[in-house]
Structures are given as C-alpha cells and as structure tokens.
Amino acid sequence: MAAARKDLLKKVYNMVPPMLESFHKGQLGRVGVIGGSEDYTGAPYFSAMASAKLGCDMSHVICEPGAAAVIKTYSPNLMVHPIMRQSKNAGASETASSISAQVVDMLSRLHVIVIGPGLGRDELMQDTCAQVVAEARRQGVPFVLDADGLFLAQTRPELVDGCKECILTPNVVEFARLAKAKGLDVNDGEPADLCAKLSKAFGGVTIIQKGPADYISNGEHTLVSDGEGGLKRSGGQGDTLTGTLATLLAYRKAYHDGIWDHDGSMSRSETLALAAYGGSAITRECSRLAFLDKGRALQASDLTEHVHTAFLNTVGERKETPQL
C-alpha cells in the first residue's frame, strides 16, 4: 500500500466509531436512499444494503409503491417507504410539494440521504427530489447524488452550487454532461485537473469522478483513489459506492458529534474528503473481491456480500471492538 493511501485510510479509520456497548440504536447511522421506480428496483436495494453491510444501524428506501413491493421481497432488513410517485401513478391531488413533504418529514430521523439509484427521469420524481434536496440543504443534512440524481445537478445546478455537505459521483458520461452544463471542455486537461475545475464550477462541491482511478476533489484539494478493482464493469456497482459513502458520512456525523472519546482534530472539510476517499477505496476492494470470486459472471449483487470484508481489508476494525 502506498504511503499516501495508507495515511488516508488511517484517517478514515480514526473517523469510524468503535463498537461500544454504550451506543444505542441509530447512533451509528440512519440512511435514506431515495429512488426506485417501476423499472428500476435493484439500484436502491444495492445502495441501501451496502450501507447496512458497512454497519449503518437503519437503512431506509424511499421509492414508488410498485418498487416498494418488490424491494421488500429482497430483504427484510431494509425499511421501505412507498412515498414517491411517477407521473402516471400519481393521484389527482398528489404533487411534487405534497409528496416531497412526506419525505421532508423523515429528514429529522435521517443522518444522510442518497438520491438517484433507480430514480429515472420522470418529471414528478425529479421535481420531488429537487424539493427534497433544497430542504436537506437548508437543514444541513448531507446528501449523495448519483445516476439520475445527477440529472438534477445538470439541469438545476443552483440546487447544489456551493454546497459543502454533498457528494456527486459521476461516471465518465455523467461527468461530461455536468461539465457541459458548466461550459467546461472535458478534453482540455488531465482528469485530476478537470475534476478540480468542475468542482470549482459548482462552488466547491465534492466530486468523485469514477473511472480506472477515482478522482476526488473539492476544487482546492484533489485525491486519487487507485486501489485495484475488478475487471467486470457490470451495471449497479456504483450503487455500492453510494451506500458506502452514506454510511461513512453517518460515521462522520458521529465523529463530529463526539459520541466516543477522540481528539477531534479533523475538520468537517477533511472528514468529508475522507468519507469520499474511504467509500471509493472500499468499493474498489469490493469489486476486486467479487471479481476474484465470480470473474466475468460478476453482477452488482455479488459486491454486497463483500462490503464488510472490503472494509476490513482497507480501513480495518477499531481495536476497541470486543472479541466475539
């Protein structure tokens, strides 16, 4: 392990709460994944389960009723809320405001939200999420935008401009769309420089540019996560990343809330970057382990069972954990 990578992961380790008997249910993370439409039920499940497998106490999926019925059959461990509506399924009195109000009512019970897995481009779904993002930002609830959640940043950049409590996770195609929305040429510069430029264009939003190496930047500082991953590029692996990021952001809250004894030397800006770096490193290790196991047959679901092992291999468990 390169020295810089080892040092960064050591800091991630210091941000992760130990497992203590004094903690109560919910202190180690309450995450909400918003997405899940009729056509896409796997993505929010993969995200929420990655969150749970990394140690989040309570993982919620907020989705369409049709998606909820299916996702509930995937796992009894997730809390599934059939709140979202696609335009064709909305009642006459159901609007983006009335639907988002139900989601907003949940924000006080959540530490972090993920928006995008299985969301789709339906206008009502997008409008609902736009209102949720605005309120999450007002309340200071950190959020991760991925997949069709990134369409919000592309088409309504004011929702995220200057936000220091969010992470965008574009792949190559999504990065190009975001760059175009901000008038940047993706062919003009090296990947690390482009990631920093796009972050600056969004006012310092943290961006994880996914690829053969992941570039992480807030416009001022850029990290490179280049741990070995798998060679299969099956759809859905990014959902493991969003769930992992969500739990690390919840751990970040626990760190800054001081729910265990530590020196508190890391700033919120530093811990946000560490959450992004740690999420990337764990997900890349997940992909590597799943590929070793499945080879070219690898599917996104194969990453889920490797989340904990990937965490142990990269970050490591706290020494305060009792031996079971």
TrEMBL record:
Residues 8-314 form the YjeF C-terminal domain. GO terms for cellular component: cytoplasm. GO terms for biological process: metabolite repair; nicotinamide nucleotide metabolic process. InterPro entries: Carbohydrate_kinase_pred_CS, CARKD, Ribokinase-like. Its EC number is 4.2.1.93. It is found in: Cytoplasm. ATP binds at residues 210-214, 229-238. Pfam families: Carb_kinase. It is an enzyme of class 4 (lyase). One of its GO terms (molecular function) is ATP binding. (6S)-NADPHX binds at residues 118, 171-177, 239. Its cofactor is Mg(2+). It comes from the Eukaryota. Keywords: ATP-binding, Cytoplasm, Lyase, NAD, NADP, Nucleotide-binding, Phosphoprotein. Transmembrane segments: none annotated. It catalyses: (6S)-NADPHX + ATP = ADP + phosphate + NADPH + H(+); (6S)-NADHX + ATP = ADP + phosphate + NADH + H(+). Catalyzes the dehydration of the S-form of NAD(P)HX at the expense of ATP, which is converted to ADP. Together with NAD(P)HX epimerase, which catalyzes the epimerization of the S- and R-forms, the enzyme allows the repair of both epimers of NAD(P)HX, a damaged form of NAD(P)H that is a result of enzymatic or heat-dependent hydration. PANTHER family: ATP-DEPENDENT (S)-NAD(P)H-HYDRATE DEHYDRATASE, ATP-DEPENDENT (S)-NAD(P)H-HYDRATE DEHYDRATASE FAMILY MEMBER. Belongs to the NnrD/CARKD family. NCBIfam families: yjeF_cterm (TIGR00196). This is ATP-dependent (S)-NAD(P)H-hydrate dehydratase. It comes from Epicoccum nigrum (Soil fungus).
